[in-house]
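All the exercises in this workshop are built on plain-text protein records. A record pairs a protein's sequence with a compact description of its fold. Read left to right, the backbone structure tokens trace the chain's path through space. Once this layout is familiar, the rest of the handout is easier to follow. Here is such a record, shown just as it appears in the course material:
>
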Amino acid sequence: MIGLPLKSLMIIIAGTLIGATSAFAQSSSGGESVSMKSLLNRGFEIKAAAPNGSKYVVFLQKDKAAYACEFVTLKTSRCGAINNEAN
């Protein structure tokens, strides 16, 4: 299995539910925000989704790279790397 260990994934989800902005801190501090569509086109797979207020955060992974994506609208998402492997 290539996915993140369950314990690691639960820590990521818990951190996102506590403060979703922390998942996007890396992209807002100099990195470039990407869309969920572009990540899916690059071969990333959806591994989990979690509610965050009235929005959802979706976690995507490819090999060791991981992203969290928040839906801004039904058709628009913003994603940020949640580990250094994504850069």
